[in-house]
Amino acid sequence: MERLKVQDICKSFGGLTAVSNVSFQVEAGQIVSIIGPNGAGKTTVFNLLTGFYTCDAGSILLDGRPIENLPPSQYVKEGVARTFQNLRVFPAMTVLENVLIGYQSKIEYGWADAILRTPRLREQERAAREAAMEILERLKLSAFAGERCAGLPYGLQKKLEIARALVCSPRLLLLDEPAAGLNPQETAELADFVHGLPEQGFTILLIEHDMSLVMDISNYIYVMDYGRVISEGIPEQVQKDPKVIEAYIGQGGIRHASEG
Amino acid sequence: MQRNKRFFDLKRILPLLLAAAMYAAPLAITNQYVLRVCVYVSIYSILACSLNLISGVCGQVSMGHAAFYGVGAYTSALIALSFGLPWPICLLAAGVLSALVGLLIGTPALRLQGGYLVICTVGFNELVRLILLNWVSVTRGPMGLTNIPRPRFFGVAIHSGRQYLYLSMTLLLIVYITLRNILHSRFGRNLRAIKEDETAAETMGIRVHREKVTAFAIAAGFAGMAGSMLAHYMLYINPNLFIGDFSTTILSMVVLGGMGSMPGSVAAATLLTVIPEALRELDRYRMLIYGLMLICMMLGKNIPWDTTPLGRAAARLRGRVKIARESEHGGKD
To answer: pLDDT of A167-182, one tens digit each?
Structure first.
C-alpha cells in the first residue's frame, strides 16, 4: 500500500526551476530516501510536502487524500510531521515543553478550559505529559526533560527534534538531514534508531548526505539532480547507476563524493 | 520524593499567603496619598501584565497599549454617562470593545514582524489619540469627560481610597489569575513557541497568526478594563492620558520585569510607579533622575551577575545552602 504518492510536482522561483515533474512514492512501513548533490531540490520537495511552498503543478496524495497546498499548520493533522535541516527546536523552552508542543495538535481543550483550569484541561495535560515522557524515554532523553534545550549538546537537540515530530504519531515522517553535524558514533546510534521506526509503525522519507547511513537503512532511494529525479531503485542499484555517479562529480563514485 | 512534596505544598500555600497579605495591607494604610499610589500600581500592573502576554510571552512588541487603555476608559465613561448603566456592565463593555478593536488592528498588524509591527502600533496609538481629541461631539475633545459616576454596589457608591484600592486590587487579581492560567495551558506554551520559532511552531500545527491575534485581543481587552477602572476612579479623563509616551512606559515595565514573567511585570509596574512619586520632592530634577534610574536598571538587568564578584559570592552561598539541604535530606532517608 502506498502511503505517499507524489505525481509530477513542479516549483519554480522566478526563472529558476527548483523542482520539475518530480514523482515518487513511499510505501507504508518503509524508509525511502531522497539523495542528490547540494541544490538538487531535495529540501524544496520537503517544503512542498509540508505547505511551506505551493506547488505550481502536480499532486500529492497521502493515503489517497490530496494534501498539496494546505496551510503549513494543517499538515500535522493530516499526518505529516517533519524535522529541519538546520535544527529548529525552541531553545528557551525545556526538553519536555518542546515535545509537548509537538503533541499540541492532539490536545482539544479550549480557551475556557484554560482560563478556568477545568478537569478536562488537567486530564488532557496529564495525558500529554505522559505521552511526551514516553517518547523521551524511548529516545533516552528523559533525564533532560526539565532542562532548557539551549544547554544541550547538538546531537541531543537533533534527537529532540525527532522526538517532537514522533509525538504527533505521524503517518509520514520527513527527516531532513538528521545526521548533519553528528559525530560517527551519534550517527550510528541515529541509524539504529531510525531503522527501528518502521517496526513501530512509522513510515519515513529521508533526505541525507551521509551515504553510508542512507545505504544502510533505506528500502528504496530516489536520486535528484537539477530538480529532477535522475535515478531510483534499491540501494545496490542506485550505487551502481552511472548517472548517479556522474551527478556526484564522477570519478570515484558516491562514497568519495560524500567524503569530499 | 518527600522533598518534592514539600516544595509543591509551599508553592501552593505561598500565593494564598501573598493574596491574604495583599488584602490585609490596605487596612494598615491610612494615608490617602499612599492609597492613591497603590490604586495606580494596581491599574498599571493590569496594563503591564496584559501587555506581557503579547509582547513578553509571545514576543510581538506593541507600543500602542495605551490606546486600548484609552478605548476602554472612554467606552466605559460614555456608557455610564449616557445610559447610566452600572459599573460592572461598563467594565465588561470596555473590555469587549477594546478586545474587538484589538482584533481589528491585530489581524493585519500582526502579519508584520519586529520593527514594522512596533511602528504600526505607534501609529495606531497616535490615531486613537487624534480621534479622542478631534471627535468633539462624542469625546468632548481636549476638555475630556467629566462627572463620570463612581462604581456602585448594592446602591452604595465606592468613594474612599481604601474601597477603590480593594476594587482595583480585585480586578488585578482576576486578570493576573486569568493570564497565569493561560500561560500554564497549551495556549501559553504555544505563544512561547511562536516567540522562539514561528516556522517550527507552524509545522507543529500551531496556527501562528490566529494565536497571535487572539493573545493581542485578550491583552487589549484587559487594557480596556484597566481603562474603565481608571475612568471611574479619576472621574475625569482626557486624551492626554492615553498618548504614546504612556505606551512606552508600559512596555518599559514589561521589559524591566523580564519578558514573559507575570510577577516581574507586577514588580516592575510597582517600581516604575512608586519611583516617580518618591522623587516628587526633587521637583524639576525628578524626571531627569527617573530617566537615569531607568537606564541604570535596564543596564543592570543585562549585567551577567553570576560572573561579578557579588554574583559569585551569592552563588557560593546558594551552593552551600543547597549542599546543607541535601545532606539534611539524605540524613532523613
So the answer is: 988 999 999 999 888 8
Q: Could you say which of A141, A169, A197 is where a domain stops?
A: A169
Which residue ranges of chain A lie beneath pLDDT 50? 253-254, 257, 260
- Count of the separate structural domains present in chain A: 2
Note whether A204 and A245 are same-domain residues: yes
Cβ distance B192 to A93 less than 8 Å, yes or no, reads yes
Burial B217-235 (b: 16+ CB within 10 A, else e): bbbbbbbbbbbbbbbbbbe
| A10 belongs to a structural domain | yes
Please tell me the distance in Å from B182's CA to the nearest CA on chain A: 6
Confidence of residue B325 (pLDDT cuts 50, 70, 90): low
DSSP class of A227: T
Residue A110 lies in a domain: yes
Say if A191 falls within a structural domain. Answer: yes
* Alpha-carbon span B218 to B280, nearest angstrom: 35
- What is the pLDDT at residue A260? 42
Interface size between A and B, measured as CB pairs under 8 A: 88
Distance CA B9, CA B7 (A): 5
Q: At what angle do helices B286-302 and B244-257 cross, to 10 degrees?
A: 40
Judged by CB atoms closer than 8 Å, whether chains meet at B192 and A102 is answered as no
**Residue appearing with cell numbers 477603590:** B164
Final residue of a structural domain among A143, A169, A195:
A169
Joined grid coordinates for residue B333: 532517608
Say whether B146 sits in a helix, a strand or coil. coil
A85 domain-assigned: no
B175 vs chain A: nearest CA distance in angstroms? Answer: 10
A207 is in which domain, residue-wise? 1-79+170-260
Expressed as residue numbers, the domain containing B121 is: 38-302
Given B181, B199, B206, which is nearest A88 (Cβ)?
A: B199
Whether B174 contacts chain A with CB within 8 A: no
Tally Cβ neighbours within 10 Å of residue B85: 15
